[in-house]
Write the structure tokens for this entry.
Amino acid sequence: MEDLPTVDQSSANQSSEPLPQLPFFQRIPPVPFAIISLCIVFFLYQGVGGIIALVMIQGMVTEENVILVRWSTLVGQLLLILVPTLVLARLRHLEFVNYFRLKLPDYKEILATVVAVFALQQILQGYMMFQDSFPLPHELRNIVDKLRELLEQTYKLLVLAHSPLEFVFVVLIVALTPAVCEELLFRGLVQRSFESAVGGLRAAVIAGIIFGAYHLNPFSFVPLVVLGIYFGFIVHRSHNITVAISAHFVNNFIACAAVYLQLDDDYVAVAPMGEVTPFLLVANYAVFGVVFLLATYYFLSVTKSVICTDE
């Protein structure tokens, strides 16, 4: 009679069987995964989408084709940023909602971040005025001024609305859609990946720097980095990406409203109707610096720090 395998032999045979291999995107370390994801989205949106848009508008945004530009921007953000981000996140992690940290935000968190974002905008507007006045060689100044004027005119054409209904459409394209798409990419996919390697706050800084560079606007790089780091901080602190989506939306909405209300480019709240003097600029930093600190302190008081990991 043939001997039956013992329990120990059966266990040994089972343990010798190879474990099922994880899917490719789950085997990639977090930081390389974030870099690969950024390259894919950058190639799709800035590369493929950008070339298609340039061909469609023949290389220049005008009043005649601005509607086409708006629609192409909306479709591009949804198809070439949001969809790849969702697909990559799904390939990386099956816990979709938990991976993106999607939760209903507390109204206190929204209130605190809205006030903080408005104050931060005013501080950064003061910085932009200082940046524009920075001395440069005459030849370089001419090049910089022409490039900045081109970017500003393009942005104004995209954002300028002539009716309340058109303003709502502009807000959808310039404020709401980027807030959702970019936050899921940068604070959802990128920051989430870096957190397991360098920790939450450092990941917020790295994602913020990448966020600023990704927009390809050298004049707004510093303000975008600061805003990106702040968005990353509130996600890390609240463990809730919808808080950052709300803050991002408010930031973009304020910019849309400023153009709709025909406010000056150098508008700061401490001098809404007059010239901004050095004294008023210092007052702007002081007043809104205090407002930002108070709003942030309140935000800290209604949230608790959470250590996040990639997996």
About this structure: DSSP finds twelve helices and no strands in the chain. The mean pLDDT is 85. Residues 103-301 form one domain.
